[in-house]
Amino acid sequence: MILLSHKIQIKNPTYKQEQYFRQACGTSRFAYNWGLEEWKKQYSAGNKPTAFKIKKAFNATKPIEFPWVFNVTKCAAEQAFTNLGSAFKRFFNGQSKYPKFKKKGQHDSFYLSNDQFKVAGNRFRIPKLGWIILTETLLFSGKILSATVSRTADKWFVSISVQMETTPIKVSKKQADAVGVDLGVSRLATLSNGKTVEGRKPLKKLSRRLARLQRHLAKCTKGSKRYNRQKMKIARLPTRISCIRHDGLHKLTHHLCQGFKVVCLEDLNVNGMLKNHKLAKAIGFYEFKRQIEYKATLFGNWISIVSKWFPSSKTCSNCGHKKEELKLSERIYRCDSCYFEIDRDLNAAINIEREGICLLA
After folding, report:
1. CA–CA distances in Å: residue 84 to residues 41, 46, 54, 245
2. Rounded CA separation 96/328 (Å)
3. 176-199+253-360 has which CATH code?
4. What is the pLDDT of residues 245-273, one digit of tens each?
5. 67-79 tens-digit pLDDT
6. What's the CA gap between 25 and 31, in Å, rounded?
7. How many other CB atoms are there within 10 angstroms of residue 143's CB atom?
8. What are the sequence ranges of the domains in the chain?
9. Contacts of 195 (CB under 8 A, 6+ apart)
10. What pTM does this model have?
11. CB within 8 A of 245, min separation 6: which ones?
């Protein structure tokens, strides 16, 4: 079994529909913040708060103090306490920082359980609102578990989670045995068969436009209609950049899983790379790994992860000699032993493939 989500844009929501979405997001945000404040109060009083106890206290209070929560789906408020409990669980396990209060306009969303909505083609039904139109039909088939309606810039989306059987997708008989993949900054990826995939760099291209829009925003009166319009223009740019990046990664991971039986990757130190601000703007290694892992389950591939300490770049793919030092500026690998010359990234991809196959053997 595998759990997948399909995020679909809501097509031209009406004023009534958008008002409902905003109110449901506000209800979810209010319930979360109320629960966090109540958690702090109970803890200060020497009690041991839990998400269930706080949810029970909120349900007892809401008919009198917060009757407006009944204007939207009950899941909007109920799921907020589940999310709060998960946030504290991650905090106690040392996986994240102490939970913070949610702010209006940042990551607005609300949850729907599978008994609270219906999907029919490109239509989606929400309680107390009715049917809304989606831009496409649901891609996956299986048991529908939940849905989340969210806002990005000025667009609304619904993400539907589906539990699917892990039956491998039929692929071409021409599928090759194995490939090594070396992810990079100058190019998105270099494959061990010599092919390279050039990555699109939308941030570099759109950074000037972003700077221009921000200068214009600084001259506007805060809170005015002109200020809000300009702010929305700025919000659309990161969304566009993210979509372009994800599109490139999806095409690459689909090509790898469809064309090769075994995909060998290097377990890169992503956290360390993110500390370098120049690299942080260019890389999408975590997203690449996430995509290829779930697609490998769908296509029936083997994924071999090579250790990040494996010297893929320093080792000669021709004779196996290892260099003591290799600068990042050296784009051509020159072996000191056999004098073999090869592109640095291609050399690393070949070594990753060989090491990955050895790990599976």
Report:
1. 15, 19, 10, 31
2. 33
3. 3.30.420
4. 888 889 999 989 888 889 998 886 655 55
5. 999 999 999 999 9
6. 10
7. 12
8. 2-164, 176-199+253-360
9. none
10. 0.80
11. 200, 202, 284, 287
